[in-house]
# Entry
Amino acid sequence: MNEKKKNTRLTTASGRPIYEYEDSQTAGPRGPVLLQDYILHEKLAHFNRERIPERVVHAKGSGAYGTFTVTNDITKYTKANLFSEIGKETRIFLRFSTVGGEKGSADAERDPRGFALRFYTEEGNWDLVGNNTPVFFIKDPKKFPDFIHTQKRDPYTNCKSATMVWDFWSLNPESLHQVMILMSDRGTPASYRHMHGFGSHTFSFINAENERFYVKFHFKTLQGIKNFTDEEATRMKGIDPDHAQRDLVESIDRGDFPKWTMKVQIMPEAEAATYKWNPFDLTKVWSQKDYPLIDVGVIELNENPDNFFAHVEQAAFAPAHVVNGISYSPDKMLHGRLLSYPDAQRYRLGANYEQIPVNRCPYMVANYQRDGQMRTDGNGGGKPNYFPNSFDDVYTDEKFKQPAEDLGHHVVADWYDRNAAGENDHYTQPGDLFRLMTQEEKQNTVSNIIGSMKGISGEKRDLIVNRQLCHFFRADISLGIAVAQGLGVDISQHATGNVHAN
# Structure
């Protein structure tokens, strides 16, 4: 498929021509993202400052306080204090949100839902910042600003654009797994209470022997799954654009406390190198046949904030905030969020955002951060503002030292190719997902895809439609045929068509 030759050379904001605009520099193909990748920093830091004062993403949200109670012993996997004994309770705050809409958007939009959970533990705040889906649209953080731009407003019309959305998805086949979820009825949950939550990323557990296990977090709603059809969601947007917020507040006020069970999948560190999928690829799931769900505990929301702005609007989550016994993984999207989330919060709320009550650790905090806007805690008084010093008794505790991560032999810094051999199967899992659906779920998903793609317009319409149809055919022939027929496209050219993807 021929496309117009491009004549404008891509540069940084300072005018430096660049090639590695989409792929992050890493320590080896599956190693961590390197701090020296300035283009990644420039894209994410600029992206965080594009809109004020609301969040760039997840702008509209709802939240409540509650408790997490341990029901099963997982201490052989992690030494995290909040899991130390069965029956232990930890205070939590959970914020739900839509992703792409502004603060005034409707709760019933077709969109992933944020599922951001904070545990106020004795050893610090742990923020598990995920979604109601186990995967995401992209696997490299350099692509995040570009992706979110397509979910926002067209710079010319200032309207949402199906053309932008499907153009990006068709050029990035790794998005197909998440697109299939979004276009099913799971893309329009009936309420926040009636959907699952996921940590989405791969994290790691570290036990008392400093053994590392990779882990994925699942939160299964005990209210049961309830989704809107596309017609029901459209109707609800007109009836009550705040229906999910209203439902959450009213359910807690009447004592009908929402609950979820926390479960984990555990992968021994050594198995990560040989698993059939890259276990750190955010567009993939781990098979539950290979790594079954393990029960951990129950979360319950039982306290509405007394002031929405003070608590929900000022809540500032960051997946960088982990605690002893819980750590990161070589998940590249996670690494991007470790940088961008705290940076976004410092910009939105100020350098001292962690002193705001909803964000403050309720236990002891000792550091040498000083000054900055909105300092509220006495600013350390006359104590030293440097470490080490000869005047105070603050020390570093060696028991909290992180164990080394094995990155394998011959690790080199390189730009990760997310479509390299072994990383480019973007079709098996989306196809499996479609084949697992009931006939009604398949029909609704196909109908939602067709309805959305009919909004693609302009001179590139046929190019974008044809490119995306190739992805659907590669995932599942019957899916491709159904979408093509719904769009009135001749299917003979697509079953074996070529796809151009950046």
About this structure: The CA atoms of residues 21 and 39 lie 7 Å apart. Confidence is low (pLDDT under 50) at residues 496-502. The chain has twelve helices and twelve strands.
